[in-house]
Structure prediction request, 362 residues.
Amino acid sequence: MNDPKTAASAIDRSYTLADFDFELPNELIAQHPTPERSSSKLLDGTGAQAVHRIFRDLPELLQAGDLLVFNDTKVVKARLFGEKPTGGKVELLIERVLTGNQVVAHMRVSKKPQPGETLWMAGGAFSATLLGRWPEKDGALFRFVLSNDSGDDPYQLMDKHGHVPLPPYITHVDEADDVRRYQTVFAKNPGAVAAPTAALHFDEALLTALDQQGVERASITLHVGAGTFQPVKTDNISEHVMHFERYGIDPATLEKISQCKARGGKIVAVGTTSVRALETWAKTGETQGDTNIFITPGFDFKVVDKLITNFHLPKSSLMMLVSAFAGHARIMNLYKVAIDQNYRFFSYGDAMLLQKASQGEI
Prediction:
């Protein structure tokens, strides 16, 4: 794993947690997606003045030769419900699949079971035996081994018996439509417990239009973890301990990035997860592994020129990331504009297009 200390090395210490806070009316938290993926609103924040667009207008805002970098992770049905032997209710959120049918999970239960104790999940369809805490004996997560009579692996068990792990601010129980809409149209590599939400706005028609315009595509994989929803709680943001997420970048994507830079095109990251993977690679030279990169104002972006992203939670690490990328003052102003114009926020909400700030704008 990358050294956690390197993740926060570029922090501008003049910022405190309060600098990334804002008031958001509850009615602007999107509970359901728009009827069509590309019919959501798009706030173009690349110019001197914010411009209100529809997401399907994106081809008008990019140039032939630009490169869109998507995250092709696939959300798994990671939320599982079951019972302890005593009958007490338990909820697991699978964060990571290990070898040997072992998984790492968050656990919600009134009284924690002991190592060796077996939980019965999904009405007894399979068992989850607690092995201990993870990654160490005092870790915040728990390691289980899953088993059923059919010999299904954890992904098969989640697919059969799990629920879509909707974010905590979405209040409805997962529905059939969430299986489709809380997933990108190009999702390929299973492992995420949260969607790369900026990519949810892309449908096949929009992708075709971008192809026809000469905008190229590439993919990284970053398996989004539940930590993406956690607020930063330390007033001194340099004290925040960032969560780890697995990522991978294949040689074909690196070649496309090199070619795009050589021809003068722009690298357009689709979502903060793509930014985190690309900038981790630029910082460490590692094309796969676990990253806990913490991007805050003062960070020196090496790869990404433009960013498509949804609107993020107050006091979150992602608010800090977009502020680092586009400039803190610009971001806070764009968020005010979005709230005044009733943009929809968070995972099922609207999007914005940003460009990397010049040094004087940071």
